[in-house]
Amino acid sequence: MYPFRLAVLPASLVLLAACSQPAAQGDWVLDGSASRLNFVSIKAGDVAETHRFTDLSGSVAPGGEAELVIDLASVDTGIGIRDERMREHFFEVADFPQARITARIDLATLAELAPGERTTLAVDATLDLHGASVPLAADVVVTDLNGTRVLVESAAPVALHVGDFGLGDGLATLQDLAGLPSITPVTPVTFSLVFERG
Where do the structural domains in the chain lie, given as residue ranges? Predict the structure, then answer.
């Protein structure tokens, strides 16, 4: 009963999002209520479960600098005790409360989209998680919704490995606490993010 995996964000999410500071005029600001970031955990070899983070913030500045911040304490697996164990033993939110993705976006390409049109972008990003900084690459699909709002979606799941972020010991602790024979150390992450021009 312990799904797990890093699940921390697809580098693609990288597309727009910002830290907790107020967005400047002209920024694209994440609409957290309309956005989702999901990850899948696989336990005991073939039992897959989907989870999410409920607290996301972010923005893209006029120069294309993008940042996405994920509050790791907002992990939501649908089971309270599992959420608590993931916060304490896996993410160690007391010391590492957030995950952050940064990247630079080609806003000129997005400016050419008309409402209803979409395009695919290749994004190179950096994910800062649990004290580690790891480069990531992903394709994202961007759809202009109405001229002032855009939808950014993962073109395909982004696979993250817990070992890249020093999370292996935490994963082993979760497996032991849950009494599971295994928890897969690689997790696919998907996302659907809505941004609005500030």
Answer: 11-197
Span 93-104, pLDDT tens digits: 999 999 999 998
Label residues 160-191 b or e (16+ Cβ within 10 Å = b): bebebbebeebbeebbeebebeebbbebbbbb
Query: And the tokens for 38?
Result: 């999901």
Query: How wide is the angle at C-alpha 85 spanned by C-alphas 41 and 81, nearest 5°?
Result: 90
Tokens (6 digits) for 80: 């309270």
**Side chain identity at residue 147, one-letter code:** G
The total of other beta-carbon atoms located within 10 Å of residue 35's CB is: 23
pTM of the full predicted structure? 0.86
118-143 burial string, b = 16+ CB within 10 Å, else e?
eeebebebebbbbeeeeebebebbbb
Summarize pLDDT for 74-126 with one digit per residue, the tens.
Answer: 999 999 999 999 999 999 999 999 999 999 888 888 888 999 999 999 999 99
Instruction: Give the residue ranges of DSSP H helices in 80-157.
Output: 80-85, 107-111
Cβ atoms 98, 72 nearer than 8 A:
yes
- Does the domain formed by 11-197 have CATH 3.40.630.30? no
H helices of the chain, in order, are 80-85, 107-111, 168-178
Residue type, 158: V
Give the count of alpha carbons within 13 A of 67, CB side only.
17
